[in-house]
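hey so u asked for the seq, here:
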Amino acid sequence: MKLAQTVFKGCAAGSALCYIKPDGEVWACPFIPLSTGNVRHTPLSEIWHKSELFHSLRTRSNLKGKCGECCYNNICGGCRGRAYAHSGDFLTEDPLCFLDCWGEEK
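ran it, structure tokens below
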């Protein structure tokens, strides 16, 4: 599992990518329509490092439900966009997850 963690990072929303809309609004993912700031007013580096939403996404211990309990949450994390679309909460479990190790030791 340690080798997999060095190669796979799972959902990249807010940790390896962000989405900048034409109007300058910054989203963690095109499928999480929540603004974390605007590059026309705030440097992207500041938004990237100081956004509470980005910080929440980067901290896998914040994940809820099956994703929070899953032994693969550090190498998967589920799709945060799907979680948001399904529940309105980007930290809840991915409703289409096919993995089956919830509650096992991480």
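The chain has a mean pLDDT of 89. The two ends are 9 Å apart (CA to CA).
lmk if thats what u needed
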